[in-house]
C-alpha cells in the first residue's frame, strides 16, 4: 500500500505566493539536474505559515513521489502539547519508511535523538 499521509490542503492560500514560487523553482532546477535529493527547511516564527507552505507545495508535486508521501506533525509550536519525541515520530512512519533504522539507530543524547552514521 502506498502511503498518502499529507493533511488536506487549505482552500485559501494568501501571502506566500513568492515563497511557493521559490520552492517550485528550486525543485524544478534539482529535477532538471538529474533528480538529486535535497533536504530543505522552512524557517520562521510560530504561526507564519511554514506548514501551510510545505503542505501546499507537497500537494502540488505529489505526482513526483509515486512511492508515497509521508507526514508527521512534530508539534514544534503547539502550546497545548509538547514537541513530539524523535523516536515517537519515527515510530509513526510506515514500517517500510523505517528501513534505515537498522543501519542508523536513534540514540538519545542530551535530550535529543540523532542518527548514528555507523
Count of discrete structural domains: 1
Low-confidence stretches: 108-118
Give the N-terminus to C-terminus distance in angstroms. 31 Å
What is the spatial order of strands in the main beta sheet? 1-2
Averaged pLDDT: 77
Rg for CA atoms:
16 Å
Secondary-structure element pattern, one letter each: HHHEE
Structural class: mainly alpha
Total strand segments: 2
Instruction: Give the overall shape, derived from the CA principal axes.
Output: globular
Q: Tally the helices.
A: 3
Give the percentage of residues in beta strands. Answer: 5-15%
- Main sheet, how many strands, which sense, barrel? 2 strands, antiparallel
Q: Helicity, in percent? A: 25-40%
Please explain how this structure is put together:
The model is unreliable at 108-118 (pLDDT under 50). A hairpin with a 2-residue loop joins strand 1 and strand 2 (112-115). The protein is globular. By secondary structure, it is mainly alpha-helical. The longest helix is centred in the first third of the chain and has 16 residues, at 17-32. It has 3 helices and 2 strands. A two-stranded antiparallel ribbon has the order 1-2. The chain has one domain. The two termini are 31 Å apart.
Question: What labels describe this entry?
Answer:
118 residues; mainly alpha; 28% helix; globular
Secondary structure layout plus pairing:
Blueprint: H1 17-32, H2 50-60, H3 86-91, E1 106-109, E2 112-115
Antiparallel strand pairs: 1-2
Amino acid at each position: 500500500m502506498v502511503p498518502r499521509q499529507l493533511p488536506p490542503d487549505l482552500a485559501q492560500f494568501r501571502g506566500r505566493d513568492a515563497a511557493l514560487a521559490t520552492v517550485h523553482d528550486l525543485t524544478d532546477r534539482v529535477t532538471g539536474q538529474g533528480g538529486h535529493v535535497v533536504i530543505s527547511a522552512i524557517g520562521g516564527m510560530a504561526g507564519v505559515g511554514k506548514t501551510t507552505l510545505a503542505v501546499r507545495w507537497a500537494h502540488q508535486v505529489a505526482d513526483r513521489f509515486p512511492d508515497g508521501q509521508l507526514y508527521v506533525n512534530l508539534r514544534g509550536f503547539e502550546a497545548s502539547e509538547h514537541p513530539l519525541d524523535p523516536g515517537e515520530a519515527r515510530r509513526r512512519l510506515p514500517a517500510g519508511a523505517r528501513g534505515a533504522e537498522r543501519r542508523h539507530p536513534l540514540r538519545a543524547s542530551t535530550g535529543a535523538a540523532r542518527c548514528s552514521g555507523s
